[in-house]
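quick q for whoever's on today - can somebody do inverse folding on this one?? i tried earlier but teh output was garbage lol. C-alpha cells:
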C-alpha cells in the first residue's frame, strides 16, 4: 500500500490504498478485512467534516482514483456513472443532450459516491425529490470484497432488495459504492427566480399559500440571519418559456406579493450556511414556530445564526459558527435547546458539519429511534465493524 496520507478528520491512517479499478478495490477490502484492519473510505474529501470522527483508521481507501465512466441513455432519461465522477462532470455531460440530474451542487467537487454516502438535501428536492428518490440502481463492494448490484437501467426494476436506498446516507459504513444508475429530467426552457422580503411575523400565511399553490414551483427557499425580523423568500419556477410568466403571475396573486425576478439564482441558493452547520427537520406547517423559536434562542445566547429553510420539505440548515468557539457547556446548551425545539415540532436536529473538536466532544446525531434496527443492519453487512467504525449514528 502507498505511504500514509495526512490526518483525516482527526485520525491518522497507518496506510493508504489507492485502487485504480473495482478489482483492485475488492482485493484491498478482502486483504484488510482478513487482517481485521479499521477502514475509512474517502472520495474527494469534500465532506470529511460530516458525521462523527472515526474511532481509528488503519487503512484509508482513496476511491477518487477509480475510473470515471458515464453511460447516458438519453431516450430513457437514465444515466450510469461510476462513483468517482463528480456532480459537475456529470451535469456537463448530461447538458449536451438537454438533460440534468436534479440534485444541487451544495459542496463543489463532490463525487457521486460521496453524494450517496451523505445524502445532502438542497432546494431542488422540493420539486424532484432527494438523491435517494433519483437513485434507481447501485453497484457496491462489501467489506469482504463481494461485489453487489441492486436495480439498474430500468426505472421500474423490482429485482432483488433495494440496497440503493439502504446505502444512501450511510456515511460509508456499509459498503464502498462503485457505480450508480440515476433517473434524469429534461433541462427547462426557462428558469425564473422570484425573490421578496417577508417579515417573520407573516410567515404563517405565506407558507400556507405556498404549500397549497397550484403553480408547482421547483424549489422554495427561505434565507437570512436570525438577528433580523425579515427573511428573504426565493421561489424557482421553471418549465416552458410561455408558461413561466403565467405561473409567476398566479403565485403573486395567491400570495399577495410582488416578486423581483432573475434568471440567476441568489448567491446563497445552492450552498450550506456557515462552516458549522446544523440540519434541523420539522413539520412543514410548523416553520413559523421554528423560525420564532430559533430567533429567541439566538437572541438569548447572543449568537449569529444564518437560516436556510427549504419550505415544503421540512428541512432547515442553520449556520452557527459560534458553536465552535463557545465553551463546551454553552455549545451543549444551545444545541440542546435547538433539539428540544425541533422535537416539539415533529423533527430532529443534528450537527451536519463542524470542526473535529466539536464533533468529538458532542454527539452530532443525538437520539435516533431506529438505532437498534440500524445496528442489526450494520452487523449483517460488516460483522467485524471495520468500515468507518464510530462515524455514524450511535457510534455505528
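ok took a stab at it. sequence:
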Amino acid at each position: 500500500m502507498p505511504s500514509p496520507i495526512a490526518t483525516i478528520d482527526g485520525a491518522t491512517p497507518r496506510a493508504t490504498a489507492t485502487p485504480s479499478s473495482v478489482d483492485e478495490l475488492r482485493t484491498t477490502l478482502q486483504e484488510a478485512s482478513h487482517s481485521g484492519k479499521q477502514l475509512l473510505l474517502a472520495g474527494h474529501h469534500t465532506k470529511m467534516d460530516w458525521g462523527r470522527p472515526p474511532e481509528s483508521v488503519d487503512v484509508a481507501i482513496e476511491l477518487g482514483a477509480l475510473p470515471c465512466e458515464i453511460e447516458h441513455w438519453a431516450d430513457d432519461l437514465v444515466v450510469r456513472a461510476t462513483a468517482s465522477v463528480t456532480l459537475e462532470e456529470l451535469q456537463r455531460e448530461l447538458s449536451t443532450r438537454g438533460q440534468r440530474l436534479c440534485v444541487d451542487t451544495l459542496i463543489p467537487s463532490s463525487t457521486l459516491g460521496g453524494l450517496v454516502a451523505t445524502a445532502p438535501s438542497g432546494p431542488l428536492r422540493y420539486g424532484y425529490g432527494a438523491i435517494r428518490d433519483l437513485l434507481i440502481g447501485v453497484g457496491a463492494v462489501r467489506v469482504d470484497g463481494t461485489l453487489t448490484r441492486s436495480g439498474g437501467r430500468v426505472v421500474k426494476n423490482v429485482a432483488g432488495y433495494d440496497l440503493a436506498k439502504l446505502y444512501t446516507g450511510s456515511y460509508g459504513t456499509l459498503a464502498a459504492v462503485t457505480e450508480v444508475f440515476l433517473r434524469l429530467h429534461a433541462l427547462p426552457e426557462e428558469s425564473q427566480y422570484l425573490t421578496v422580503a417577508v417579515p417573520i411575523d407573516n410567515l404563517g400565511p405565506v407558507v400556507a399559500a405556498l404549500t397549497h399553490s397550484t403553480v408547482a414551483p421547483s424549489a422554495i427557499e427561505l434565507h437570512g440571519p436570525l438577528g433580523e425580523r425579515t427573511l428573504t423568500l426565493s421561489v424557482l419556477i421553471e418549465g416552458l418559456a410561455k408558461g413561466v410568466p403565467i405561473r409567476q403571475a398566479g403565485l403573486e396573486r395567491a400570495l399577495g406579493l410582488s416578486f423581483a425576478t432573475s434568471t440567476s439564482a441568489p448567491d446563497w441558493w445552492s450552498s450550506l450556511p456557515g462552516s458549522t452547520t446544523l440540519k434541523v427537520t420539522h413539520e412543514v406547517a410548523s416553520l413559523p414556530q421554528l423560525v420564532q423559536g430559533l430567533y429567541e434562542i439566538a437572541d438569548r445566547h447572543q449568537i449569529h445564526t444564518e437560516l436556510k429553510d427549504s419550505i415544503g420539505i421540512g428541512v432547515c440548515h442553520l449556520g452557527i459558527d459560534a458553536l465552535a468557539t463557545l465553551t463546551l457547556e454553552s455549545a451543549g446548551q444551545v444545541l440542546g435547546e435547538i433539539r428540544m425545539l425541533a422535537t416539539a415540532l415533529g423533527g430532529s436536529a443534528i450537527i451536519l458539519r463542524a470542526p473535529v473538536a466539536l464533533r468529538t466532544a458532542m454527539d452530532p446525531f443525538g437520539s435516533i429511534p431506529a438505532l437498534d434496527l440500524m445496528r442489526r443492519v450494520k452487523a449483517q453487512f460488516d460483522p467485524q465493524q471495520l468500515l468507518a467504525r464510530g462515524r455514524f449514528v450511535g457510534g455505528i
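fwiw The first strand starts at residue 15 and ends at 17. also The chain has a mean pLDDT of 93. so keep that in mind when u check it
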